[in-house]
Specification:
By secondary structure, this protein is α/β, with parallel strands linked by helices. The protein is built from 15 helices and 19 strands. The longest helix has 20 residues.
């Protein structure tokens, strides 16, 4: 009988979540490198380059690859011959490990978990509790698979109970375009088929823990119906031309995973959950000999990229910028921003909108400024700010008309596309929407030279900050005329891919 000590288990959980916040799995690095070499879309190639550069920088700097350090998800398989030398429940031990990981003084991770989700939405401050799935299995060891799931990709999860005669592939091809670039492709799709509603969702999530091996699968050929589905969905999703960050290109998914389970004769439950370009998962086993050990990947695993982010980009002085100048920008233009920008996300926008509705003075002057949708990680050591990549822009769509029409704001910076409501507001007010690369948070933070809180300090990472930036890389996503790169790019590359005589891999 194996005895697992409480401290060993807790420390393994803590070390595992710290590890995946910093290091991408080698299979992911390799797949992204191959996607970079294969990519023909300049916009997508630039985005993939930034993700790879960010990944290496995070490894060297020992800091998170993304500012959204995710909700902690743990899959446990506990051997029935295991004995626990512990006074805490398994859930409580996992939570303590998560707490230690996310409050680590040398590499603090962002606390994103809110209690009372339909009410006060109070931050728990330590990213607990974790979501734990536990199974008792034969054996005398504990297997743990950890994932840190970001909100941008998690929010694009889809589920349906199809008719038994319906096509799973057709349903998925309907769903993926509705996800757009919000989930930060290229990444993985996890698909669960069968069981019941909750079983299909868990299958989809669990499938994302598996390594990326699509090229190996295609080389040897499928052996099961699930593997046939993986290949078919992989090829057809990439043929949609959505591309990196939703800007249009050859690679939307690096891999597709499928797990299935027997289901009721009247049912066909199907779930799809995307995993973003900040792919974070690790597996460890405990046999009673001590805590798990994690080995960092060597820098030789990253491709050597000779990328100049300034090449082909227009430098912009934010201190002298006017609406007349922004009106000359076109969707797809790449810019390097220098000067001061403001930050604000969901909670800050809600407070601002309430103040405007009451006719009260705003705590910040937005005249001729850009607002960056970001919730940075806390700074450590000599950092000005921790990893500070963009959050999903569409969550702020309902505030866009008010912000552009009543504050003097020039425009916004976020990730991925805007919805129809926001695009119409941008066009009406001759505003602008820019994007930074989701999944390049540490790279973006290096462009931030100073940071201070201006308002709503109680909101923590959602407070309004003023950032002083130098050559911050962005792309025009929606120009003043309403043209959107996230519409034109995928449309162009979907047509191009249809004419490519070889299978897009």
């Amino acid at each position: 009988m194996t005895t697992i000590k409480q401290d060993d288990f807790i420390q393994s959980i803590a070390d595992g979540f710290q590890f995946i916040s910093i290091y991408h799995p080698v299979d992911f690095i390799k797949a992204m490198g191959e996607a970079y070499e294969r990519e023909q879309s300049p916009a997508a190639k630039n985005a993939i380059a930034q993700i790879l550069m960010n990944s290496r920088m995070a490894t060297e700097g020992h800091r998170p690859v993304c500012q959204d350090t995710g909700i902690a998800v743990v899959f446990l398989k506990v051997g029935m011959d295991v004995r626990w030398d512990a006074k805490m429940s398994v859930q409580d031990m996992v939570n303590e490990g998560v707490r230690r990981a996310y409050t680590d003084k040398d590499n603090p991770l962002r606390a994103s978990i809110l209690a009372d989700p339909a009410g006060a939405r109070r931050n728990t401050r330590d990213n607990t509790p974790a979501v734990v799935h536990m199974e008792l299995v034969p054996g005398s060891t504990v297997e743990a698979r950890l994932a840190a799931k970001g909100g941008g990709s998690e929010n694009k999860s889809r589920f349906a109970i199809l008719n038994p005669s319906d096509s799973v592939v057709d349903w998925i091809l309907e769903q993926v375009p509705t996800m757009g670039g919000d989930w930060c492709p290229p990444g993985m799709l996890g698909i669960g088929i069968g069981g019941t509603a909750e079983k299909a969702m868990v299958l989809a999530k669990e499938s994302l823990m598996d390594p990326l091996d699509m090229h190996e699968l295609k080389a040897r050929g499928p052996k099961t119906r699930a593997e046939e589905l993986r290949i078919e969905i992989f090829e057809k999703v990439n043929a949609l031309g959505i591309g990196a960050q939703g800007l249009g290109g050859l690679t939307t998914v690096l891999d597709v995973k499928v797990l299935d389970y027997p289901t009721h004769a009247t049912s066909l439950p199907v779930a799809v959950i995307p995993n973003c370009a900040a792919t974070r998962h690790v597996e460890f086993h405990l046999d009673g000999s001590g805590p798990a050990r994690f080995e960092a990947p060597g820098l030789e695993n990253w491709p050597k990229l000779a990328v100049d982010l300034a090449s082909g980009a227009q430098r912009v002085n934010l201190e002298t910028l006017t609406k007349a100048e922004t009106a000359t920008w076109k969707a797809g233009d790449r810019l390097l921003l220098t000067g001061k920008i403001l930050t604000g996300r969901d909670a800050a926008h809600k407070r601002l909108a309430d103040l405007i509705a009451k006719g009260e003075k705003l705590p910040v002057d937005f005249t001729n400024r850009f607002i960056y949708y970001v919730g940075p990680v806390d700074a450590v050591r000599d950092e000005v700010v921790g990893p500070a990549g963009p959050t999903t822009s569409r969550r702020m769509d309902k505030f866009m008309d008010t912000m552009l029409g009543q504050t003097g704001l020039l425009g916004s910076i976020g990730k991925s596309e805007r919805g129809k409501q926001a695009v119409e507001a941008i066009k009406r007010h001759k505003g602008i929407h820019l994007i930074a690369v989701g999944g390049a948070a540490y790279l973006v933070s290096k462009a931030i030279r100073a940071s201070r809180v201006l308002a709503f300090q109680d909101l923590g990472m959602e407070a309004i900050h003023e950032f002083d930036v130098k050559d911050m890389p962005v792309t025009v996503a929606v120009d003043a005329t309403g043209n959107a790169a996230h519409e034109s790019g995928p449309r162009e590359w979907r047509a191009r891919i249809a004419k490519i005589p070889v299978t897009v891999a």
